[in-house]
Amino acid sequence: MLNVWLYTQLRFHLILEPSKHIDSINYADIISQCINTIRFYNKQLTMKLVNIVLFTFITGSGFGEILVIPFNEHHNLTIDSNQLVTRQKKQAHTSKLHLVPDATVPYFSELSEHCKGLLSNFSATVSTYLKCMTFYSKPAKLCQTCQYKLTAVERAYNNIRDDNMEPICPKLLLTSDSLHMIEREYEHAQEVWQIADCDYCYDNPNVEIGKWRVSNKTKEFFDLFNRTIDCFAAFLPINRTNSTDGNPGICPNCTQEYSALDKMFLSSFQSEDKICIDIFEAMNYTRIVWSRQYKCYARVRNLAEMIPIITLILVIPFLFYPGVKITMDIYDYRQKRKEQEFDKSVSNDYGIKY
Amino acid sequence: MVDFLDDDCDDDSRPLLCGNNLTHINTNTNVHNYRERKHISTKMNQQGTDFSGTLNYLGQMSYRAVNDFKSYMNPRDYYSTVSEEFSESRESSFTMVEENPRMMEAVNGSDFLSSKYESLDYDVMENELYYERERTHGSLQHLYVSLVRWLLMLSIGCTVGLFAVGLDLAMTHMAEGKYELIKNTITRCLDYGCTCWAFLMWITIDCSLILFAATLAVYAGPAACGSGVPEIKCYLNGVKIPEVVRLKTLIVKSIGVICVVVGGLAGGREGPMIHIGSIIAAGISQGRANSVRFDILKCFPKIAKVFENFRNDKEKRDFVSAGAAAGVSAAFGAPIGGVLFSLEEGASFWNQALTWRIFFASMSSAFVVTVILSAVNDHLGAITYQGLVNFGQFPYENCHIDTWDIFTVIILGIMGGLLGALFNSLSFRLTLFRRKYLNRIRACRIIEAVVVSLISTTISFSAVYFFSDCHSLRTYEESKYAEHHPVQLFCADGEYNALATLIFTTPEESIKKLFHNPKLAYSCLHLVFFFVVYFMLTCWVFGLCVPAGLFVPALLTGATMGRSFGEGLHALFPNSEWVVPGKYAVIGSAAFLGGVSHMTLSLTVILIETTGNTSYGLLIMVTVMIAKWIGSLFQEGIYEASIKLKSIPLLSWEHPETATNLQAKDVMASPVCTFQPVEQVGKIIAVLSHTNHNGFPVVEGQGNNNTHDDHFTYGQYRGFINRSQLIILLKHKVFFKDLRAPYRPPYLPLYYFKTEYPRFPSIDSIHTTVEEDSHFIDLHPYMNRGTYTVTINASYPRIFCLFRALGLRHIVIVNENNEVVGIVTRKDLGRFRETKRCGKPKLEHLDIR
Lengths: 354, 849
Hints:
The complex is a heterodimer of chains A (354) and B (849). Chain A contains twelve helices and four strands, in the order H-E-H-E-E-H-E-H-H-H-H-H-H-H-H-H. Chain A is mostly helical. The radius of gyration of chain A is 41 Å and the shape is elongated. Chain A starts with a helix and ends with a helix. Chain B folds into three domains: 300 residues, Roll (CBS-domain); 211 residues, Clc chloride channel (Orthogonal Bundle), CATH 1.10.3080.10; 250 residues, Clc chloride channel. Chain B has 35 helices and 17 strands. In chain B, strands 12-13-14 form a three-stranded mixed beta sheet. A two-stranded parallel ribbon of chain B has the order 1-17. In chain B, strands 2-3 form a two-stranded antiparallel ribbon. In chain B, helix 3 runs antiparallel to helix 4, helix 22 packs across helix 25 and helix 24 crosses helix 25. At the A-B interface, helix 11 and helix 12 of A face helix 7, helix 10, helix 19 and helix 20 of B.
């Protein structure tokens, strides 16, 4: 019966709420229930009788799908699937109906309390984690704030996956629908962490155990960073509106801190492939504030030195090409003269005039 | 002292006394002139005819040519050989020159064919010896030969791949090192005020590299100059360019191209890769390298006997086209593109089995490149690195193609076509100037290359120094292709100079960045500046005597064009999803290269393969098509133009439309040097040393002019013999003394002909005694009896088709009695060229000098 269903197309979908014991569903009951429902909704159908209802039940999900194939009473239930397909093709008039669940049919499959607990644990950890990541993304502090929340997500997920108490639980929760919400959220959580390169803030992090030891480099960096920011804060003018015009107080006073930070960043992070987003953003922010907002850093172009040299070089082709042309023209002219003289001498020898 | 580089062929200096090249050499000949010419020739006996050729030749040669002629030879020798008639005619010749002063200025243009280029023999010499070998070969032998052919294809592919990877690694590492050094020095100098010295250091590095490359190219291997694509194209078409497939050229080319790329000149390595591939293919297939005196036939005579089969122009050509394809394939990681390139730009002769073999070579080369690059990049065993130039994969979301794109693509195509035409005409003018003034002195060519390098470095530096195209580092980090550290210079901390980052890399990397960096990574204005500068530089570099290709610079120029178009479009429609500047960069590069080179199929496929994106295929095709149409309204592709400028007699795919009413008698060369089947040694030596013809009809009976058709005939046609064969026969003295005696010397085995190939000794190295001069040679077993002939009334298109399809070198023109009346060579056909003036096609007759 199940086979037949697999080979044919669904005509009617019925969302069932199965009776209490999912595993011991009385198929006959459900079938008759279905037929009733279909009849109820389907009075306009021209068929005499809806004979056979084939149906399958995705294990335990509570959502059944029913195939209704109208044909003769005399047919047996176990018909050849191929026949069925061809038959269906012929009957183009079979209509598709989405049936609203009957009030009597239980709609939501009851998860066991245990499963429910796992699910709610997971959703809670994920939402805390994402909230944390979102909130601390500006200014970026997420790697150093949300690490244990990621561990919690990981653990909650592992709890579901490796659940031994009710083996049906992981199946139900993880793979029973097309959305795969838990899987999706778990992957998303990982992905965000990886895009932020947060692992690079730590020494050999282990997410599951929750071993998050901030690396020495990171510590050192934030030390310097805090010092710089403190310095900025100390010399910040009271009226912040004119800060766009540069700041006379900050530049001379904080150069030491800033360049120490810059140097440290360049020496220990610049050459690396990936930099933890906290550090990266902090550095970017400092740099932009320093050079754009306070206008402390500006290289000056030495035009007086460079322009003459460049002009001098750019003139060379304008000398070279005409020079070659003139030289060659003079050479050709001389050559021609020589040839004419040669021709004259030849013509004198042999008496040819031209 | 001035070296006339363009005239360095010895053959030119020899007085041309008899035969086919002579009569058709005359300059402003049109078809009507034929009657006059014939009148002269028919007046004389056979001996006299030879001279009449010379007279005609001299009489209508330009003034300059006459002077060259004189300066090359000792006048006394010359006059002593020529009869009195000569002086009369010579007199008249000069009056003619004075009447027609236009001819004097025609020296530098593209309006003549150079006689220094010989043709290749793509027609197999099927003589007695050949038949005998074929008879002894069983089917097993044939199987063995074709197996070896496949193995050779494999080894060609692998060697080309290895070579390409070696070059690439050397180049990339050196270039990276150089740019890193310069970048660091400049950055440090900006703080300490020594920018000037950093600049000078940059210039010194670049100029010395270019100086080295140019010196090497000019003095050691002039054939290695330029991209090499036109030369290979000519070779595959059947024109032999001196030194083009020599080991020397290979070495010069490889070292030179490394210097050029590292030296930051606007030149690519892809064109040279094609040339290098061809040279490797030629070397491997022949199993010899003359420069180092290695010949597999002599070193391992037993094992390598099979190589005898490949010692002819036809087999060699097939291998060379495979080598060219393998070169493209290795350079771009585009095996199919390589095959199609070989088909489109190179091979003039093509068949299905050959295509498959070439594809095999091409694939094996790409495979070797991939494997080695993977190993080098620590992924041993993985076959992930695609080609040397990989323009990166486009992510799926960027492949969105909107209906609007058809219009933008058309606009880009038109832009590409117009700019390509501008590029071609600029480079044409520049080349003319170079030919007229610069190329005459070797030092001048070197200095020019250095000047170009100086200017391009200076412009790069100025762009880096004066422009600040600052963007936040964050956008840089976002881009997938940010392997190189961003350059800050005058930008604020936390920002980078996008323009400088483009400049401080190899062109390939720049292309990648233009293709893939996200929107607004560049400002439109700076891109336009970069475009203009790079356009000029590319144009300037093309034609320099350094091994530098056009492919990547043109792609980069086009990518800049497309990218600036895309950024402009983005400014116009800021919210449109379909405006992806990277997409327009790809299309722009296709459009520009299409407009410049007039390549179509192979360009499209190469770009599809290098970007790994088939969904842009349609757009690229449309844009290339339009660019080509627009471009050909103005001029032909740059490769054809440069071939034409070199006066090489290339036969294109189609014969000129306006030449359909010509007939064999109008195009053929009429006094023909012929031999009798049993010929006297003295005569052969005389003819060989006084002419530079390469093929001679063997006739029986004497010539006369009593046929009703007024054509001078040379006896009944029996067969055809090549100069090289005659020289080998003379060298091995296959003579016999007495015509009537029954003794005949044994046949000279085929081996002797094959070992000398392709560089046969010159006739000057053959010495015979006076007694031997009266001996005879029996040409019967050596001549090709089954050559193609056409009758005197055959049409020009028919002869053209025969030449083009069969790769002929000579075709003998016979009359209805099978008597030889003339001969047609490639140059006789190539000198009819169609030019379009104001849209009207006009048939031009070129001189052969």
